[in-house]
């Protein structure tokens, strides 16, 4: 089932922050990481294959070959059907307890 994908402000800010941090040492690697994260989000709209999330009502998808997790949820669209909202992009090394978000 194809769904529209919506990036939350938090997720976009985290994606930009990740790319900026990596770009300090390696701009090309930063571009590749950002592309991979965005591609993961886009693919979730085609086929949402993720595990149950640590925060109720969410799901998590690991970005292939990278230490990042895309956190998402589904919402009902006013016109019918559902959309997928990407809530956060989190590095796997972050402290992240159930039912909490890691500090921004």
From TrEMBL:
<protein>
    <submittedName>
        <fullName>Plasmid stabilization protein</fullName>
    </submittedName>
</protein>
<dbReference type="InterPro" id="IPR051803">
    <property type="entry name" value="TA_system_RelE-like_toxin"/>
</dbReference>
<dbReference type="Pfam" id="PF05016">
    <property type="entry name" value="ParE_toxin"/>
</dbReference>
<dbReference type="InterPro" id="IPR007712">
    <property type="entry name" value="RelE/ParE_toxin"/>
</dbReference>
<dbReference type="InterPro" id="IPR035093">
    <property type="entry name" value="RelE/ParE_toxin_dom_sf"/>
</dbReference>
<comment type="similarity">
    <text>Belongs to the RelE toxin family.</text>
</comment>
<keyword id="KW-1277">Toxin-antitoxin system</keyword>
């Amino acid at each position: 089932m194809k769904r529209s994908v919506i990036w939350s402000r938090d997720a976009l800010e985290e994606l930009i922050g990740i790319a900026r941090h990596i770009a300090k040492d390696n701009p090309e690697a930063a571009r590749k990481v950002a592309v991979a994260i965005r591609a993961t989000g886009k693919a979730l709209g085609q086929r949402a294959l993720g595990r149950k999330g640590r925060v109720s009502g969410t799901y998590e998808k690991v970005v292939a070959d990278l230490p990042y997790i895309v956190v998402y949820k589904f919402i009902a669209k006013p016109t019918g059907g559902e959309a997928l909202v990407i809530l956060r992009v989190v590095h796997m090394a972050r402290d992240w307890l159930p039912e909490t978000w890691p500090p921004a």
